[in-house]
């Protein structure tokens, strides 16, 4: 309860009455993409230190000062899942199905790795895309679970693929790590555990 009150007060809400202290717009669009017409926040905000990371699927990711709401930086990368900030970097999956690593200080791209995109990669059948969940940084790796049935691990330094294991029926959630075990829920509702 103490942590939630601290977070609430730091994220721009007064302790009594819930009146707002600040707000910030995360808007933008990526021309040529149907998703770009949606400008709502699509990634859950993540707080690290005194920075909150938040983005949308229309090509914008922002790092905001948690006390004032002022932007530290804004980049033209859309995200649909939360950013994973760690070690001076932020890891994210873009709306274009790319795993990226950004410099947490200025938002500059350190590396980007394309993930599988279209279920049917033929020009007239490019409507359904694969869903990639995560990333999660654990055990010195960046983990991404996908609904195409693969849990991939990448080197956080250079983005190289270092491992892949099967997830029967594919993933429907981001991986969760607890007690040295990584858990993923499949599209069939089964919980899978990996070490």
What does the model show?
The protein is mostly beta strands. It folds into two domains: 21-114, Beta Barrel (Thrombin, subunit H), CATH 2.40.10; 132-195, Thrombin, subunit H (Beta Barrel). It has one helix and 15 strands; from the N terminus they run αβββββββββββββββ. A four-stranded antiparallel beta sheet has the order 1-2-3-4, with no helix packed on it. A four-stranded antiparallel beta sheet has the order 5-6-7-8, with no helix packed on it. Strands 9-10-11-12 form a four-stranded antiparallel beta sheet, with no helix packed on it. Mean pLDDT is 82; it is low at 1-10.
What order do the helices and strands come in, and which of them pair?
Blueprint (H helix, E strand, L loop, with lengths): L1 H9 L35 E3 L2 E6 L3 E6 L5 E5 L8 E3 L2 E5 L4 E6 L5 E6 L17 E7 L2 E6 L3 E5 L6 E6 L9 E3 L2 E5 L5 E4 L1
Antiparallel strand pairs: 1-2, 2-3, 3-4, 5-6, 6-7, 7-8, 9-10, 10-11, 11-12, 13-14, 14-15
Write out key terms for the chains shown.
Thrombin, subunit H, 5% helix, 195 residues, disordered N terminus, 1 helix, mainly beta
């Amino acid at each position: 309860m103490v942590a939630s009150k601290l977070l609430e007060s730091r994220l721009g809400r007064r302790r009594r009455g819930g009146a707002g202290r600040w707000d910030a717009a995360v808007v933008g669009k990526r021309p040529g993409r149907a998703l770009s017409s949606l400008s709502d926040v699509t990634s859950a905000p993540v707080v690290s230190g005194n920075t909150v990371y938040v983005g949308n699927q229309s090509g914008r990711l922002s790092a905001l000062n948690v006390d004032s709401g002022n932007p530290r930086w804004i980049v033209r990368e859309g995200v649909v899942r939360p950013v994973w900030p760690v070690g001076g970097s932020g890891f994210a999956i873009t709306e274009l199905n790319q795993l990226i690593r950004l410099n947490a200080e200025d938002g500059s791209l350190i590396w980007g790795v394309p993930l599988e995109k279209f279920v049917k990669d033929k020009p007239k059948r490019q409507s359904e895309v694969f869903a990639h969940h995560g990333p999660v940084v654990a055990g010195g790796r960046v983990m991404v679970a996908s609904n195409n049935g693969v849990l991939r691990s990448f080197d956080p330094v250079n983005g190289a693929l270092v491992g892949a294991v099967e997830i029967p029926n594919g993933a429907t959630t981001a991986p969760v790590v607890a007690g040295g075990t990584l858990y993923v829920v499949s599209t069939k509702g089964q919980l899978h555990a990996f070490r």
